[in-house]
Specification:
The structure holds two protein chains of two kinds.
Chain A: H1 12-27, E1 31-34, E2 42-44, H2 46-49, H3 52-71, H4 75-100, E3 109-112, H5 114-134, H6 138-158, H7 165-172, H8 174-208, H9 210-225, H10 228-245, H11 247-251, H12 259-283, H13 287-295, H14 300-330, H15 343-352, H16 355-390
Antiparallel strand pairs in A: 1-2, 1-3
Helix pairs in contact in A: 1-3, 1-5, 3-4, 4-5, 6-16, 7-16, 8-9, 8-12, 8-14, 9-12, 10-12, 12-14, 13-14, 14-16, 15-16
Chain B: H1 3-21, H2 27-30, H3 47-77, H4 85-95, H5 100-111, H6 115-139, H7 143-151, H8 156-189, H9 199-208, H10 211-250
Helix pairs in contact in B: 1-10, 3-6, 3-8, 5-6, 6-8, 7-8, 8-10, 9-10
The chains are: A mainly alpha, B mainly alpha.
Amino acid sequence: MPTLRPTLHLDRLGSVIAGLIGLALFASPFVTYRANRIVSGEGRLLVDALPPAGALITVVVVLGVAFCAALARKPLARLAAASLGLCVIFPAIGISAGFVTPAGNTFARVSPAIGFWLLALAFALLAADALTRLRLGPWGRLGALSVAAGALALLLVSGAWNDLSLMKEYANRAETFWREARQHLWLALGSMLAACLVGLPLGLASHRVPALRAAILNGLGIVQTIPSIALFGILIAPLGFLAANVPLAAALGIRGIGAAPAFIALFLYSLLPVVANTMAGLSQVPADVIEAARGMGLSRRQRLVQIELPLALPVILAGIRIVLVQNLGLATIAALIGGGGFGTFVFQGIGQTAIDLVLLGAIPTVALSFAAAIILDAIIDLTRRGAHDRD
Amino acid sequence: MSARAVILRVAALLLLVVFVTAPQLFAFAFAPLAANNAPAIYNQGSLLALTLSHLRIVFLATCASTALAVALGIFVTRPKGREFLPLSRSLVNIGQTFPPIAVLAIAVPLVGFGEKPTFIALFLYGLLPIFENTLAGLTEVSPQTLEAARGMGMNARQRLWQVELPLALPVILAGIRLSVIISLGTATIGSTVAAKGLGEVIIAGLQSNNIAFILQGGLVVALLAVLIHDGLGLTERMAARKLGRFVDETA
């Protein structure tokens, strides 16, 4: 009952976010300045990290967002405030990097510091909460994702971030970056496709033949339990043997160490969600629907293709979503056994204690998994809606 | 559990214990894999000590994540914390798109090499499954059950401890199991940042190109994970069965 609500209502979550913003703004450095890429750096508060006018605008906008978070109740208003905040601090970090770096100094590195990350976290939390409350449909979520991706691409292409240490790391290895990106996608998507090709028939078989069910699920369950690096290790031995003794395998590029064990391990991990969800999807198709299809004279094959698979599709896709997000993350570990992918930068960065290099590998991985999760969730919603329309 | 299943588990456990305490007994099996007179069995430290420190860090991190995740799960399902419920659901979803290695790698520059970044990564990443399952377990308690508990004169605290948490326990335990398995894997990768653990054996093998090391490290971690997963699954089934009896007796 809105009339009973006091006029000035402090939102709990909003207050926490406002507190976070205050902490970020007044008590934490906005950027870190380092004389070169591996020495430890010194923090700069936001007021010292931007030209006076820029600093003033940023502080005013950020405080405005904090007030909105604490006081505004409408999700749309909070979303607008959060987006405004992000639209200010993202370019600001780029401007700040240019401002803090002494002119002509090519060794100096400027990275976002804890204050920037806290602000980004606070705004992202506010936006995530508002988006959750708005209950956007699948198209709405896809739209929001493409707006975010577009804004990010614009920032990257415009060169607004070129003075940041992260982008300098990228510029130094742009070619390697795209090669590893292709390798990462190939590992994650290729093993997923292979798992679909094998897993769908396997799921169908275990749906039709109950005797197979327990054996297949138990076997795949055990594979899922084995930690990734251990599974890579176990696969290296037989693949190395194969490469040493079968010339064809070596000619195909199969080696003990490299992409082959990583691909096979990701494939094995992917099987369980695909098989289990295919089975679950098929078994939830109502028996009377199948009976009706049989009554209409549909053959076994027609029933499968026209009735059972379309009705099971949302559940099968849910399995594929799990696989895709999991593979995009796990593919980072492939770098440890020479399989390439974004993990290459992560492990190099750990070795050199260069956090920006770690981020160069970690940020694209997280962004890809995040986008994949949103896109597949939207597709699942759309197919589910399609399945209901047919009812 | 059938006799065969029991024998299989006991045999696997025995094999693991014998292997980590006296790996030299198995040297004959790994010797063909070690090329150029390289040692067949890991010789840069005791496998037993590595296994124990691996288990220790997983255990400590899981205890810490369980305490915080269950507390948070309880908080957001109480009237006071309801405002945080939708956001925490999305956060769990978003958090799971982070690969554990990213958390580990980002923790290194902040706290340095060694056990600390591994512990932080294990702790943070372990929160997600436990929190998610605590939420699922607590929100799935039927309103009728809660109403009945209220009708019996239970206050909010009693309802939580005597009705909601016991009913949610099997689901929470499933979350803890998932978290432990992820942590076992992440702790293995933790060896790349100099945490003591079984990953050391695999990494040493990768660095010296000794497949015998890689395989034995992989097998020990894998066997450990499968046995722990199985053992925790058993506790879960026991908790669920106990719950079934409890409900039957009161019915």
